[in-house]
Structures are given as C-alpha cells and as structure tokens.
C-alpha cells in the first residue's frame, strides 16, 4: 500500500534567519556596553577625574553649600512677579510653537500628498530646532531682539517646534487613512482633508504632547534669565554674580518648589486627559452610555471642553501681550536679524570648535553611562517588584523627584562656583541629572515587566539575585538599553547648555562667538551639534529596532 501521508520538506530547505534573534540582541547589547565603558574611561582621562579629585571636588562643593545656608528668600512680591514672568514666557513660547508645529507636522508626515520637496525641508526644520537647546536659541535671540522676556519666549517656541512637530507627525502617520481617502475622493483639497478628517483624530494626542512640552518649557524658562532672557533666572544670575550665595540658595528653593508643584499639576492633567480619550481609538471622546451620536448636544462635558479651549486661548493672548510686543522694537530687530543671517555663511569650522564639540560629547556620554549605572541601582531600590524594603522605595522616590526638580544649569552654576571653570563641573552636573532621570525611567520599566517568571523562580526557592538574573534582567535589557540611549541623547543637548555657564564643552564657545559677532562660528557650532544629536538619535533608533 502506498502511503498518502504528506512528506515534510527537508529542514535545510527552510531559509530561516542568518543569525538567531537572541544572538543578534546579545551582540547589540554587548557592543553598546563595551562602547559605554570605553567612552566612560576616555571621559575620565579627558577631564582628569580620579577618586582623589572627586573627593576634593565634593569637599569644595560641601563648603559652598555651607556658605549658602540659610537661604535668603526674596520678598513675596518679587517672587510672585518672577514666577509670573517665567510662566508667561513658557505659555507664550509653547503657544507659538503649537501654531507653527501643526502645519509643519502635516507636511513632515509620510502621508503628505503635496510637493515632494516640502517634506524633506520640513524634516530638516524639525531636526534643527530639536537639536539646538533652548538656552542656545536664547543667546541668539537676545542678540537679535535685546534683553528681556520676548527673546526667552521665542527661544522656547523655536526649540519646542522640533519636539511637537515630530511627535504630532508620528500621530498623523498612525491615524486611520480611510476618512482622509474618502474626503479626497469627494474632491477635498489637502488642507480641507487635514482640518476635517485628520486633525480631529489626532487632537487628543496633540493635547498630551502640548501639556508635556509646557511642563518642559516651564523648567527651561526658569533658567533662561541666566543669559538675559527674562524670568526668575535673572535673579539667580544676579545673586551668583554678586556672590550673594544666601539669596542664590533662596531663589533655587523657589525654582525647585515651582517645578515640583507644576510637575504634580501636569501629571494630574495628563491623567485626566488620557482618561477622557481612552475609550475611543479614533481620537473622539467616547459617548455616554445609551446615547447615539445625534443625541449629543451641549452637555456638561462639551461645555467644559469648549470653556477650557476658550480659557486656554485667552491665557495665550494675555501671555503674548505681557511680553510687551512693541512694534518699534520688533522692527528694530530686523537689521540685527539680517546681520546675523548674513554673517552665518559660510560656516567657519575649525579644529578648536571640533575639540569643543568632542568635549561636550564625552561629557554627555560619560555622564550618561555612569548615571545609567547609578540609576539602575536606585531603580532596583525604587521599583515595587525589586525593592528589598518598601519604605526605602518611598524615600528614594521622593529624593529622585527633588533632584530632578533642580535644572541642570543650576547644578552647573553651583559646581562652577565651587570647583572653577571646566568640564569637571559639567560632568558632575550631568552625572547627577542623568542618574535621577535614568532611575525614573528604569523603575517605570521594571514595574511594567511580566511578573510571572520572577514569581515562578521565587516559588521554587531561588534567591533574590537568582530570580532577578533569570526572571527580570532578560526582559529588562531592551528597556535598559533604549532608556539609557535616551538619557545620553538628553545629556548631549544639556552639555551644550552647561558650557554657557563655564562648565566645559561647546556652549561657552557659542556664547563667545555671538558676543564677538562671529556668526560664522555660531553657524558651524549649530551644524555640528545638529549632526551629533542626529547621529545619537539614529544609533538609539537602530539599537531599539534590534533589541525590541
């Protein structure tokens, strides 16, 4: 009898992958680890960091902190005015950024159907505005528009365009294309399609992005005064410049309390916004139970949303008006703008400039590597599934929130005052901020892992470190790598800012080039920063694709 059972193809005929996915992930993770160790060693050698120098630096810092105690708080009226000016700068800058980001995001998205040359141009604008820090833009705009809040608001706006437009473009690309195609089939133009079908669906995402960016901009606006761009940072720079450390400590306390209160408010608003839009993946709010779409009128929810939109618009207009947009002052800025733009071409690259960029890169990557290692330890003490003692987790979480509440530039100013100019002060400032940020990201990632492998190993008698190594760490490696690269990206942007305070890197060179009207050097610095930041972002994107 002939068998009718189908035969199986030989195993060799199955092409399969050239390398097992697990092996590829292991190679990528090992390569990044080796690179991090090498960069850290090179950073230590570059800035002359050793255990003895670190101990001496910390001792000098402790002496400075003793000189700053007790803090001398400004008067209530002065504090209220400085805080109000800081908030108005952030609101005005964020609002201007939203107005520019919405059309830019639609043009930069892959779904754009207009002229082909517009999309690459829009993506270049997004990359450049995102790569250059807010404080660097503030230096440039102070030169063009003069001292005061208008320069700070424009700096906040230009830098925010990069983030808002990028994230909104991603949301536009992920939106359901069927309604847009239907509108085009009926003869609608691209602007009509975007306004009537796409924008309503991505509006919840846009709201979340704007709230998150506003939180970031308030933190940034708190230190813009260091370069004369208004806000509470003006008082901080004045106090440090006059060696009034008690007053500087009081202003730092005001900044920390302001940032922490705003962070709590931002978290509450984002949670409420996410809760409202969680029931509908199309971007429209879920309807009340038992009601059809045609039955929905001006109910309480719609009244609150419209009222919120009106209040937001009024606050934005008030913030713009508070910046004193004097037409004569704005018209007088055009000659400065023309001279700046004319002086930027051709860019003047030099060996000194490239060495300064390398110093910023080493500071950022070295501090991010050490901060990731320290942040991992703190995250293990903080995450609910790894902490050995839950009261300790609460204490560490509160400490990390306070540390994150102090802007990086404030750390840099303190370390420069204690240790002197140079990359050592910048490295310490980035180390502290990178540690706090990495600990938050790592703790959140640890708590989102699948608990079953860890619980299974614990139930059969495995020790704590064994259960972690076999049940948690293999799941955590992709998140650890991705978040670590993101921390390095943020540290690189901040390293440019810290140089403005004299903490090493290319920031001081940028401030000097603008002060001496060497705009060709300024253009070269901006291009170099953008290239390096884009390279780090590309590395992070490739690593996540191979690890996740």
From TrEMBL:
Compartment(s) where it occurs, according to its Swiss-Prot or TrEMBL record: Cell membrane
Main localization of the protein? membrane
Task: Return the PROSITE patterns for the record.
Answer: ABC_TM1
Source organism of the structure: Microbispora maris
Q: Know the name of this protein?
A: Phosphonate ABC transporter, permease protein PhnE
**Which parts form a coiled-coil structure per UniProt?**
none
Family from the record: Belongs to the binding-protein-dependent transport system permease family.
Boundaries of every ABC transmembrane type-1 domain copy: 83-266, 357-540
Note whether Cell membrane occurs among the keywords.
yes
What is the membrane topology noted in the UniProt record heading this document? Multi-pass membrane protein
What superkingdom heads the lineage?
A: Bacteria
Any stretches that span the bilayer, and where are they? 26-47, 79-109, 222-243, 249-269, 303-323, 370-389, 409-432, 522-543
Q: Which UniProt keywords apply?
A: Cell membrane, Membrane, Transmembrane, Transmembrane helix, Transport
